[in-house]
Amino acid sequence: MDGTKKAIKAAFPLTIPVLIGYLFLGFGFGVLLTKAGYSFVLAPISAMTVYSGSLQYVEVELFKSGFSVFSAIVMTVAVNIRHLFYGLSLVEKYKGLGKYKFYCIFGLTDETFSLAVSQDPPKDVDKGKFYFFITLFDQFYWICGCTLGAVFGQLVPFNPKGIEFVMTALFVVIFVEQWESAKTREPAMIGLLCSAVPLIIFKIFMPGLTSYFLIIAMVLIFFALMFRRNSLTRRLDN
């Protein structure tokens, strides 16, 4: 039990920025879901099973346009393909998680990834429990946000336009925190450069394909980090 308490105390403070973002963004999803005519009960079910902010927003449109298994599969792959690269980045960190590994893999969202990749458990805290509680807290916040929004949307007229910006604000907060605490800022610069260049190119020359720039960005980031891996490892170990 002491080990569990230590893991909770170490993990919880790190998830507070996610708590704020997930409550608001989940609230927006819940409102959209109920305003589309669906029962508020679907909000917590979706948050527990689908658990993907961007995909759950798309999910509402998929339901409204008539559900198609093929369309759902294609859309899921297109929206969440970045998780392939997230997983590759966490292969070493998630080694030895034991019984906690599968849930940590299932609960890997953008924000949980940002925390997992930037935070190491204290020396006296079990690694598996540390990452497990980070993941669990984040999903709990999301479930609460989605449920509250769905109940509110069912009872009160509400215009959710613009609330999705909360996710952008959350990413900015997490990025600034990582920037200030990092031993080296080269990975952050690689991420910014590899994202900005394809976005600008798509915007200017292929505006119709701009939504796919993220795939190119993730590929560029992956190969750039692999190329600089040895150098970055030496800096982080010093």
Please tell me the overall pLDDT.
Answer: 84
Structural domain tally: 2
The profile of the biggest β sheet is:
none
* Count of DSSP H/I helices: 13
Helix-strand string: HHHHHHHHHHHHH
Distance between the termini: 34 Å
| Helix-and-strand structural type | mainly alpha
Rg, rounded, reads: 19 Å
Notes on the protein architecture:
With 238 residues, this protein is mainly alpha-helical. The chain has 2 domains: 2-181, no CATH class; 183-238, no CATH class. 74% of the residues lie in helices and 0% in strands. The protein has 13 helices and no strands. The chain has helices spanning 2-11, 16-35, 42-49, 53-64, 69-80, 82-89, 101-106, 110-118, 127-155, 165-181, 186-205, 213-227, 229-237. It is globular, with a radius of gyration of 19 Å. The mean pLDDT is 84.
Brief overview, please?
This protein is mostly helical and 238 residues long. It contains 13 helices and no strands.
Topology overview:
Elements: H1 2-11, H2 16-35, H3 42-49, H4 53-64, H5 69-80, H6 82-89, H7 101-106, H8 110-118, H9 127-155, H10 165-181, H11 186-205, H12 213-227, H13 229-237
Pick out its properties.
mainly alpha; globular
